[in-house]
Design brief:
Layout: H1 5-22, E1 36-42, E2 45-51, H2 55-76, H3 84-91, E3 93-95, H4 101-113, H5 123-135, H6 141-148, E4 156-159, E5 162-165, H7 178-192, E6 198-202, E7 205-209, E8 218-224, E9 227-237, E10 240-246, E11 251-254, E12 257-260, E13 277-282, H8 285-309, E14 315-319, E15 323-326, H9 328-333, E16 336-338, E17 344-346
Parallel strand pairs: 15-17
Antiparallel strand pairs: 1-2, 2-6, 3-5, 4-5, 6-7, 7-10, 8-9, 9-16, 10-13, 11-12, 13-14, 14-15
Bound molecules: adenosine monophosphate and magnesium ion (MG).
Length: 347
């Protein structure tokens, strides 16, 4: 995550736009339903929770959701100095609370199944690009190689809920999975309340829960990478989480050029797989978030091979410069409504 003030403001503006875009789900009032929403800023991201209930019911639910998300940030953020991740990065050990072991396990599972396209130890490279932006220069090959030497899950040991590192320069960045985990916790909680349904938009992750009053699936707009004020189509989502990774989401600017935030851990450079964005649909938000990052790095061919292997249950929408490619489950189910005709729809 890039954290300087300039890009932070740009990002905040963009994220607000994402939220608006993703929020074009069920129009509560038009269908006679009451909806209330609340916006938060946590984990360096704008979050919006929309609930299908009245304000009185929503008030305590909103504050409980805020506490859940703050609790996740306090453990997983690498920019909060006393978080578990920050302490791992300085001390080299994390005794992982049972509730958080899912994050570590999913990170390691996705990393293993994607040949390291998703890599929770990408932190030294992310920090290098950030430093280079501050210094107004590109990283040089030697620096990239030096950082890459410490990147890779082979430098981690995961035993009895304790994560340790075998290389003192290895560091964690769970920015590609933490929001998905937070959204899972929020939805688990919301499902136990009396709120019948709603939508949680958390950066590039959107979860729907509960049925809509009319029984229809939620309709979620997917952003057009070429025109980020517009959508390229709509996904019909009865349940679960959509996680989007795109080259337009976050970036550093060096000598006037933009370098996006998703790193190919094999090269140390922003991934160039031919994809502009990928949206992953999954019942599990933690998995959806990790997979969207991984598939973005892998590109369509490798991503489709992972889909066909059925190692993980997911569906996806891949967006290249001029094509939209759907996984079989989405194409056959007719669950994607194609609106941006400048993209060819392939499957
Ligand atoms: P996302 O937006 O979910 O795709 O996550 C991107 C964020 O995860 C970046 O801002 C980095 O902090 C981190 N990251 C970048 N590249 C990778 C990667 N290949 N694997 C895991 N995390 C990554
Ligand atoms: Mg992700």
């Amino acid at each position: 995550m890039w954290r300087d003030k300039g890009t932070r403001i740009k990002r905040l503006t963009f994220l607000l736009a994402v939220i608006l875009c993703f929020s074009c789900v069920s129009c509560g009032r038009a269908s006679g339903e009451r909806t209330v929403s609340k916006t938060y800023f946590l984990m360096d991201t704008v979050i919006e929770i929309k609930l299908r209930c009245g304000e009185e019911t929503a008030a305590p639910v909103f504050s409980a959701c805020g506490e859940i998300m703050s609790g996740v940030e306090a453990v997983l953020s690498r920019t909060v100095s006393d978080s578990a991740v920050s302490r791992f990065n300085t001390e080299g050990q994390w005794q992982v609370d049972a509730a958080f072991s899912k994050v570590v396990q999913t990170a390691l599972d996705v990393s293993g199944a994607t040949d390291g396209a998703f890599d929770p130890t990408v932190e030294p490279i992310v920090s290098l690009w950030k430093r280079c932006e501050e210094q107004g220069r590109l990283p040089v090959e030697e620096e990239l190689h030096e950082c890459l030497a410490h990147v890779g899950t082979e430098h981690l040991v995961w035993e009895e809920n304790t994560l340790t590192r075998t290389d003192p320069a290895t560091a964690l960045d769970l920015g590609a999975i933490g929001k998905g985990y937070a959204i899972d916790l929020v939805v688990d909680y919301l499902e136990k309340t009396e709120v019948p349904g709603g939508v949680v938009s958390f950066g590039g992750n959107v979860a729907v829960f509960g049925a809509k009053k009319n029984g229809e699936a939620y309709r979620i707009g997917l952003r057009d990478p070429q025109n980020t004020a517009g959508v390229l189509g709509y996904l019909s989502v009865p349940s679960g989480v959509i996680s989007v990774s795109g080259d337009y989401e976050r970036y550093v600017t060096i000598n006037g050029a933009r370098y996006h935030h998703i790193i190919d851990p094999k090269t140390g450079y922003p991934a160039e797989s031919g994809l502009r964005s990928v949206a992953v649909l999954c019942e599990d938000g933690t998995l959806a978030d990790a997979l969207s990052t991984a598939l973005f790095v892998m590109g369509v061919e490798e991503a489709m091979a992972l889909y066909e292997s059925a190692v993980f249950p997911f569906e996806a929408v891949f967006v290249t410069e001029d094509e939209i490619i759907l996984t079989e489950g989405l194409a056959e189910g007719g669950r994607f409504e194609h609106t941006a005709k400048q993209y060819r729809l392939a499957s």
